[in-house]
Amino acid sequence: MEKEELEREFENANKADEEASEPVAVVEKPEISTEGSIIFAMRTTANREDQVMDFVTSNAKKKKLAVYSVIRPHGMRGYIFVEAKTRADAEASCFKVPYARGILPKEVQYSEIEHMLEPAKKVEVNIKKNDIVEIITGPFKREQAKISRVDKVKEEVVVELLEAAVPIPITLKMDTVKVIRRESDEGGEEKEEE
Question: What is the CATH number of the domain that holds 68?
Answer without folding.
Answer: 3.30.70.940
